[in-house]
Amino acid sequence: MIEPQAGVGGSAPPFGLWERMLANRYLRAKRSQGGVALISIISFTGIMVAVAVLIVVMSVMNGFRAELLNKILGFNGHVFVSGGVLDGAARDPAVQRILKVPGVTQAVPVIEAQAIAMGPSQITGAIVRGLSPRDLKATRIVAGNITKGDIRGFGKGEYGGDVVVVGDRLAEQLGVKPGDNITLISPSGAATAFGGTPLQKSYVVGATFTAGMSQYDQAYIFMPLEQAQLFFGREGTVDAIDIRVTDPDNAATLKAAITRAAGPTALVADWTQRDSSYWGALKVERNVMRLILMLIVAIAALNIISGLTMLVKNKGRDIAILRTIGAGQGAILRIFFLAGASIGTLGTAAGLALGALISIYIDPIQSFVEWATGQSVFSSDVYFLSRLPAKVDWVEVSIIVGFSLAMSMICTLPPAWRASRLDPVEALRYE
């Protein structure tokens, strides 16, 4: 038996036991009893799905950005030095000074040029990167991901030798494997009286690697630095000094110190400047996607208004009786606020659990879907990555949960306010 008198004299605290009990009873009431259980279930499901989708999508986008960042910065560099310091004897002292800058872990003189690669089965374009054997071993995304062969012969021999390391997708496309010969054609060979002439030379594939991005695996060939200088006609110089730092996010702050160490003839740029349009587009896409999905959460929360409005209409007689026996307007408002907020809170909690589970176990889910459908759901040819990444950012998840709870409570207030303002005389007149 409900005794609302407990809340009349002001002795019972707000959101007390009898208010919570009534709110729970109204939510579970059947339609024949004036309840809106079906609409409540629909509202709960809508909020749960919207929150889960928002968490999963943002986790995938965070993972996609983090994975791309790790691959791109692991394969290339964080800061790049060009200019007159690259020529002649000034380069090596500049590299040593740069290595002494706090936060710098590696400074790699490189040559990077395009070439035509010829194999037994196909001819295709490739990007040749020349660097020393020591620097290749320090590039863990390559040296730590050798799929076939080994890099022990890399850099051994006259002018660095003839052993190269090829991306595994490029090697598969050309039809070569470790130990086979690959022919490279340089469009800018030795200079003659009639201009530059293409240079053609055969190399031995020492190993193949996979960086986890098809963009690199199907395009890059690593060559010893001395051999690259000879092959591309760049004796005594390099194209750039690739610098890696401890924290790539601090690369911009280290530019001034690196510029001073490199000397007055150096031009210094960081990774955010080199690919500014690319990273800017990713950031805009992420923000727009978050906004669109938050609107979906808001639309799902709006279902609470319709359900609670119907509940207030069906429970008009109960409201009038409660007001007659002494329940205040605040108590009525709190009862229906609890009813609506409970739907939003439970839906948000279920969506949080569902979204977090899907994000954490996205790899086995992807494997199961591909096994069940027989189709690839995340093609590396399209997205550059070999798997669907996901990174749960709990700060962002807390923002999503807070937004969902706030929208649920805001949508609860109008019908709850209407219920508290109901005139008991008018409600009982036609009963």
State the separation between the terminal residues, measured CA to CA. 22 Å
- Determine the structural class based on helices, strands and strand pairing: alpha+beta
How many domain modules?
A: 2
Approximately what portion of the residues adopt beta-strand conformation? 15-25%
Mean pLDDT across all residues, rounded?
82
Please mark out the parts with pLDDT under 50 across 5 or more consecutive residues, or reply none: 1-11
User: Multimeric state of these chains?
Assistant: single chain
Specify the number of helices.
17
Main-sheet strand order equals 2-3-10-5-9-6
Order of helical and strand elements: HHEHEEHHEEHEEEEHEHEHEHHHHHHHH
Q: Main beta sheet, described?
A: 6 strands, mixed, barrel
Describe this structure in words.
- The protein contains 17 helices and twelve strands.
- The chain starts with 16 loop residues before the first helix and ends with a helix.
- The relative contact order is 0.18.
- Mean pLDDT is 82; it is low at 1-11.
- The strands form two sheets. The protein has a six-stranded mixed barrel. It has a two-stranded antiparallel sheet with strand order 7-8.
- It has helices at 17-28, 37-75, 91-99, 133-138, 140-143, 168-174, 214-217, 225-231, 251-262, 271-274, 276-314, 316-324, 329-360, 362-373, 380-383, 394-420, 424-429, and strands at 79-83, 104-118, 123-131, 146-149, 163-167, 181-186, 191-192, 195-196, 199-209, 220-224, 240-245, 266-270.
- Helix 3 (91-99) crosses helix 9 and helix 11 (276-314) runs parallel beside helix 16 (394-420).
- The chain is of the alpha+beta class and 431 residues long.
- The protein folds into two domains: 12-69 and 279-429, no CATH class; 104-245, no CATH class.
- Strand 7 (191-192) and strand 8 (195-196) form a beta hairpin.
- Helices cover 54% and strands 17% of the residues.
